[in-house]
Amino acid sequence: MPLMKILLLEDDPILSEIIEEFLVEHGLHVKLFYDGKTALDAIFEHKFDLLLLDINVPSLNGFELLKEIKNARITTPVIFITSLDQISDVKKGFALGAEDYLKKPFDLEELLVRIERTKKLHNIDTNERITLTNDLFFDPSNYEIITPETSYKLRKKEVQLLEYFLKHKNRVLSFEEIIEEVWRFEEVPTYATVRTYIKNLRSYGLEALIENTKGVGYVFKPL
Questions:
Q1: Are 9 and 98 in contact (CB under 8 A)?
Q2: Residue 160 belongs to what domain range?
Q3: Residue 133 DSSP class
C-alpha cells in the first residue's frame, strides 16, 4: 500500500476538514465519514491502516463501531478522538481495544505524533513506490519521482497535485476541480499557476502521462 490510508469519523464538518487537510498535507490518505453506520460499511468494504474515531456521532457511536469491527475480527488499530474526558470513558475505550485515546481539544501535531507511534507499533509499511510506467516511479515517502537516470524532488504542492491525479486517474479533471480540491483553503490560484505546476510535473518525466483536454483541464493516464 503506497500511502497510509486513514478512516476519519468526525461529525463536526469544520473540525473534520481541518484534520483531513492537515493529515493530507503530511502525506496521508484520508477518507472522511460523518456517521458511524456509513463508516462501518466502508470498513467492511475497504482496507484501512488506521481508524480515527469520534465517539458521539450519529447512527452508531464510536464505542459501538469498535465493538462491531472486533466482533468481525478486524484488527485495524483505532485511535479515539473525542470530547468525552471522564476516566470511565478512557477506560472503556481501552477496554474495547483502542490503541490510543486523544481528548479534544488537541494539537494537530500531537495527533500526528500518535499516528506515527501507532504506525511503528503495528509495522504499517507505507514506503512502497507507486509505479507510473515500467521505469518511472513515485516515492510518496520521500516526495520523489524516480527515473532510470535520475530522481526529482517534488515540492509539497506538486506532491498534492500528483496524488490527486493518481486518485482520479483516467478521468477528466477541470481547472475548477483541481483548484478546489488541491488548493482548498489556500489563496485561489490562477489557471496560469495550475499550468505551471503541471508543466513542472511533466518536466519530471510525466509528459506522456498528463494529457491536456483543451478548454477543460487534464487527464492523468499512468501506463
A1: no
A2: 130-220
A3: E
220: DSSP letter: E
Helix residue ranges per DSSP H, the chain: 13-25, 36-45, 62-71, 87-95, 108-121, 156-167, 175-178, 191-201
CB of 72 within 8 A of CB of 65?
A: no
Give how many domains the chain has, as a whole number: 2
Q: Which three cell numbers stand for residue 56?
A: 458521539
Name the residue type at position 123.
Answer: N
Give every CB contact of residue 15 below 8 A, 6+ residues apart in sequence. Answer: none
Does residue 101 share a domain with residue 208? no
Peptide bond just before 105 cis, omega within 30 deg:
yes
pLDDT tens-digit profile, the chain (223 residues): 446 889 999 999 999 999 999 998 888 889 999 999 999 999 998 888 899 999 999 999 999 999 999 998 888 999 999 998 889 999 999 999 999 999 999 999 999 999 999 988 887 765 567 889 888 988 877 789 998 889 999 998 999 899 999 989 999 999 999 999 898 777 889 999 999 999 999 999 999 999 998 889 999 998 7
Exposed, middle or buried by CB within 10 Å (0-12, 13-18, 19+), for 109? Answer: exposed
